[in-house]
Amino acid sequence: MSMANTTAPTIATSSQDIAGPHGPKPRRMLSRRNIFLYGTLFVMAAYYLLPLYVMVVTSLKGMPEIRLGNIFSPPLEITFEPWVKAWSSACTGLNCDGLSRGFWNSVRITVPSVLLSIAIASVNGYALANWRFKGADTFFVILIVGAFIPYQVMIYPIVIILREIGLYGSLSGLVIVHSIFGMPILTLLFRNYFASMPEELFRAARVDGAGFWGIFLRIMLPMSLPIFVVAVILQVTGIWNDFLFGVVYTRPDTYPMTVQLNNIVNSVQGVKEYNVNMAATILTGLVPLIVYFISGKLFVRGIAAGAVKG
Amino acid sequence: TDLEVTHWWTSGGEAAAVAELAKAFDATGNHWVDGAIAGSGGTARPIMISRITGGDPMGATQFNHGRQAEELVQAGLMRDLTDVATKGKWTEVVRPKSLLDSCTIDGKIYCVPVNIHSWQWLWLSNEAFEKAGVPVPKDWNEFVAAAPALEKAGIVPLAVGGQAWQSSGAFDVLLAAVGGSDAFLKVYKDKDAKFAAGPEVAKVFKAADDARKMAKNTNVQDWNQATNMVITGKAGGQIMGDWAQGEFQVAGKTAGKDYTCLPGLGLNEVIATGGDAFYFPLLKDADKSKAQEVLAETLLDPKTQVAFNLKKGSLPVRGDVDLNAANDCMKKGLAILAKGAVIPWTDQLLSQDTQKQKEDLFAEFFAKPELTVDEAQKRFADLIASAD
Amino acid sequence: MTAANGTSVSIQNLSLNFGAVSVLQTLNLDVAEGEFIVLLGPSGCGKSTLLNCIAGLLDVSEGRIFIKGKNVTWEEPKDRGIGMVFQSYALYPQMTVEKNLSFGLRVAGTPKDEIAKRIARAAEILQIEPLLQRKPAALSGGQRQRVAIGRALVRDVDVFLFDEPLSNLDAKLRAELRVEIKLLHRKLLNTMIYVTHDQIEAMTLADRIAVMKGGVIQQLDAPQTIYNRPVNRFVAGFLGSPAMNFIDGRLENADGGWRFAADTLKIPLGTYDFAGDPTPGPVVFGIRPEHVSLNNGTGWPFSTAANVEVVEPMGSDTLVWLKLAQQNFSVRVTAERTPNNDEAVTVGFDPMRASLFDAATGTRI
Amino acid sequence: MTAANGTSVSIQNLSLNFGAVSVLQTLNLDVAEGEFIVLLGPSGCGKSTLLNCIAGLLDVSEGRIFIKGKNVTWEEPKDRGIGMVFQSYALYPQMTVEKNLSFGLRVAGTPKDEIAKRIARAAEILQIEPLLQRKPAALSGGQRQRVAIGRALVRDVDVFLFDEPLSNLDAKLRAELRVEIKLLHRKLLNTMIYVTHDQIEAMTLADRIAVMKGGVIQQLDAPQTIYNRPVNRFVAGFLGSPAMNFIDGRLENADGGWRFAADTLKIPLGTYDFAGDPTPGPVVFGIRPEHVSLNNGTGWPFSTAANVEVVEPMGSDTLVWLKLAQQNFSVRVTAERTPNNDEAVTVGFDPMRASLFDAATGTRI
Amino acid sequence: MSKSERPNPLFRNLNAKVASIPMILTAGVVFVGGTLWTVLYSFTNSKLLPRLNFVGLDQYYRLWVTPRWLISIENLLIYGAISLVFSLVIGFLLAALLDQKIRFEDTFRTIFLYPFALSFIVTGLVWQWLLNPDFGIQHVVQGLGWESFSFDPLYNSSIVIYGISIAALWQGTGLIMCLMLAGLRGIDEDIWKAARVDGIPMWKTYLFIVIPMMRPVFITTLVIIASGIVKVYDLVVAQTSGGPGIASEVPAKYVYDYMFFAQNLGQGFAASTMMLLSVVIVIVPWAYLEFGRRK
Ligand SMILES: Nc1ncnc2c1ncn2[C@@H]1O[C@H](COP(=O)(O)OP(=O)(O)OP(=O)(O)O)[C@@H](O)[C@H]1O
Ligand SMILES: Nc1ncnc2c1ncn2[C@@H]1O[C@H](COP(=O)(O)OP(=O)(O)OP(=O)(O)O)[C@@H](O)[C@H]1O
Ligand SMILES: [Mg+2]
Ligand SMILES: [Mg+2]
Question: Could you tell me the strand order of the sheet in which D62-67 lies?
Fold first, then answer.
């Protein structure tokens, strides 16, 4: 009643008006569109989550239970021992301190590698986008082709190069290797990002007297946070999960966490402890996952800016 | 002195075995720096080779006992151990003698064999045969005959994991068992392609054909998953090396009661002397070179040998050691070894290249029923013809 | 159904909020069949929003929209019988002009020959026949605009909606296209609702102009009425270029008549047409630069002396800036009669031409 | 070295190609000290390119550029003593207004107090003191524009380059800022080179206008000269809004004098000031709409009858369209004297005000 | 001193050139140098160590008569086609779905992206399990009563390469989705409106209007996917090690196996030279067209 009263003035002029639709179009939660939309999303989400479910469930089971072979059944008896073992007591040869051993090595490898590779690639992208010089395109095309070279093929040439410059086996050598292999895709990303920024900003800064580095550091950098987040995500994922370079170009005392992971998982002989393997994988993936969570929104925005223009 | 040792022994038992080596080495006043890389030679080897050629060599490194390090030696990157060997009278203590042959290049000794792993075993699940209502077979032929009964009971007769080295290894075992030691040597040592194309080897291929039919429903990749099928009675048997024993032990199974092991498939009881050896890159540091010598000696020390091999589940390389603690199957192996029924293993006879090609062939053969026995044998003979 | 007969578009009590921000407030608008309505207003006043509501591209928060007497409030855009031209053209960049024009029809399953006929007609009207096989990237701004109009045209709709179609073009092209749109309207006699913030466009094209500000229609009237008798100070100031002069002062009753006083300036308002009963108080006096004369005899109801400050020649005319009652004041003169800087001049006008606004509310007095 | 004394910017034989596309062709331009030059031309004619060459932001293909008598052809932009305002403002989005203004000075290592002093002065001139701590995103278009100008201002340079600084603004704001720039020039007396495609801006601001087309300067002259005596048909058509009327016809020698003939229309050219010796042949006759009168007595050197076709009210004036010699013709009249559609009227003008162009080459006769 | 003459072009933009030295060195020394080195040694019979012992085209001859290499090539083509098409389609579809102003967008996006963070060393094992007919999905479905259900893509030679793609898509589409989503957000709002007014159904708008407009995004994505395809290795190793038999072998694995397992560097180099050659033939002309022209 009171509802009708308050709206009366608008519709009083003509009683027929009540019949016609007015106001916002009603949206049913269970419209066909929504059923299709969320239905598809949930099915897809299930596909994406199924392996995670199996991993988590397995990692919480004891080995006898795993031998039963029912990978989908929830653990009868939840045990966190595999997690503890994966982290702190799984053995790599003689060293039985699990993933924790390589964790700090991984950090020590990942941080400088990510920083250096992004630093180099961003400067490259900037130079390519804003300071086109003769021959730059050729190098860029070579770089893009380089993105297609299987890493393994390059192991020997790089061994030779590193040996010749005397960096073989050192952390700096590894950092250089990561920078080299991160360069193609990152340079592409940065180049496209900087190319999409208004040219006039760059020109304005030149008229203002800033030089190559001045413009980069003071104008471009502060504006390109999103693309840096993208690059960080790509590189953190790539370098953190890298095994081949980490093990080929360093020494045992600086082996990254993935060497431990590989050792836990890939023992050819002896018993395979699947629960520990799963726990170890999830643990190893946590760092990139945390980076994703933190930068979820920026990720999408950053790529937008980088990729949308040619 | 610190000495870095790289190897690919990372699983529980292996690591424990390595620990024995380390302990013994540390007792000499030196320090074993462990550089374990898991994932079989394929993962570890490029790393080791890169390190050696990259000018940053480790103190010592494991290779499969065989020809894997040949070129490194030829390139002058590895250390000559002849002096140490002479001092330790290796030629006398190492048994079988052929083990040392593989370490010898141009009359110089470059490696230290540490164990013998043999491939020639057929592991059978007693439970599976019980279920199928047939007695546990005594040799390969009985096993093949029992296959239909097993299949009827819903049991996969023979478990062969999907990875290439498993099918290739199974064939080699069949070759030595069905064809006999001579045939094995003729093919792999003499690389007699004509013989490989001949009727004797055809018999082996026939056996392999049986094997692949029996293995058709295996559906697992890893060897230990296949072993697990035997353990749980889902499969009747598996051709696998002595390392499979560890799986049975961990699962709490007892040899003879729960499972049966048939060396040489019960047909030709020989042991192939595959195994692991340590190589020592040439180092500039005199102290380290000294430590290398100490390590080489330590590795062959009788006490170390026993402690190491008991943990590793392999056989020691010297005959003068006491192995009372060994289990049933291991004792069978020791007995054969004592009889001198040994053959060299493919690692020692063939280059890795040829081995890989062989793996490819047998992986295909076991997985692809359309590949006929004749066709496969022809390709095998070609392969042997170009083998090195 | 309740829309008056003969009205083409009728908007009743329309409100629209973006979350907490209210953009349109109980807006009412009736557009007659075949009428050309221009929505005029500063940036951000809700013009595009209103157009999008009519097109069905935005969900209204309250109210109804009728097109041709049918309540279309909840109808899909394609079922409303409208065609729309977007500020940014929104041509499909990878299709040729012809494809751009025909895409909607093909999707609707119109027969091939019918499509060809309609495209031919639109192309002829808009003179874009030679461009049919080009892609938008190969067109100039004006040509793109015509294609965008063509896309609405082929759909054979009752109502055209234009959202600032000319604002991206340079002045010359703008002038040309203005004429074309005017002629198009003559030819087709469709209803057109046209958004702009350019007052020349508004004045030349509209049958009626709706001046908007802050989501509210300030005045809806014929162009000349809006120009000459703006209902409030906002409308007065927004229309006209150069803009109307405003002088702050007071309305006084003196000598039996009303007069405007600011500083020493006193303007008798004998000829002024008051909108209601005037009361004394602070007011704003407004007069357009072209309604003021310089050095042109003494026959004016009001005249005063002043000094020229800046002279701005604009080609055909010149704008002369001076100060009246300490406030800036501009006068438009023809190029030939331009005084010099600092010259002393006489300023004369007829207060009948002026507008007076309440200083507080801004409404016309 | 070869630059004339007293010239501020001198461009000699400048050519610029982008790959195979030649954008500027052996262009010459001398700008005097303190002069305000406007570059005017249609979109894509090379105005921005020329400005960028002067600023050193593009490498020239051929030719030399002098600023203050110094050859700066290969100098870095910062060493040329120029300040530039970009079409899109190009403010650094992450810096406050103050930081934007001071950036160039900080890069150059100017002392802190000197920076503060210059910013204070620029902010005062441009009235942006209250905005100094805001970021560009929080500014309106006009305010951004002023900051962009300020950024050039604080650098205390000899030459200002403006690239269409007002083209993004609506008409009202444009008019305001135009006055500000004019006043700024008066105050600073710097040399200014200003690019636009808006002729009102060009006319009101320039000391001299350079009308460009296709990378070539067509005419460089004072605004009134360009407006009244365009050297070719392009310049004539490009300037003026509404545009000049053109009638295609022939120049004939009749009755001892010259006359223009098209269809039945014959215009005696007794008062026309020929640029050279005329010869009979096809020509184009041009006259501006505001130089034509409607129904205004018979005292004109030439008058004829016509029928009104379209009436376009533009607020202050009205444009009347009719046909002369079957060709469109517009007349600008004051709003009060507007005729009706289809009304018969008399069109009168003085041929002295007209321009005649060669039909083939387009040059003024 | 005034620079009145055209300066030496070598010193124009000197800073940019100096800053590009890492890129130039990487491209020139590592990629070009490394590639030339590889090509050179592919004509030798290098085994464990690279040695300049030339044998002409022997390695190539052997390569092209090796059944495993031929199968690898065939698999790469199939796998490449599948993962290219499905990555793009699924990635785009997911992005389009997420772009519908849905609730929990963040959650869904993270779900689709997380596999990218996990190492394939173990997730390959999980997929092996899931697709295992004896205890994976097939087993579960059959347990539900659908006895004839068969789904064993990793254990069936004829479809194994398709099975491998299932996990490949699982891992890779999240990133593609993010790129696509970003691209979609960059499309002018007015285009959508215009299409709605024109009465064009949503899917047609995507197909005929939006996708062609997202060309640059697709190009970036394409480079990322394609380079991933050519390099595919651990995906196969972790799931099937190339099996059953050699049914799921891929070229990169052939290269790796022959370089390091078989210790036949020459053969590995010959194989990788073939791979690079085909990449160069496809990529270089395209890349020049795409990136070489002026902005
Ligand atoms: N999605 C939105 N969310 C919140 N506010 C919005 C949104 N879209 C528009 N607005 C606000 O609504 C108001 C009206 O916007 P609208 O686009 O209708 O302006 P307009 O009159 O068309 O202006 P212009 O002349 O600049 O195009 C603006 O103040 C704008 O900030
Ligand atoms: N990088 C380039 N490569 C090739 N052609 C170019 C390039 N930059 C500009 N041009 C061409 O040079 C011509 C002049 O461009 P310019 O930007 O100077 O025009 P403009 O006169 O400033 O036009 P507008 O008024 O639209 O700003 C145009 O035709 C343009 O297409
Ligand atoms: Mg708008
Ligand atoms: Mg320009």
Answer: D21-32, D7-18, D62-67, D70-71
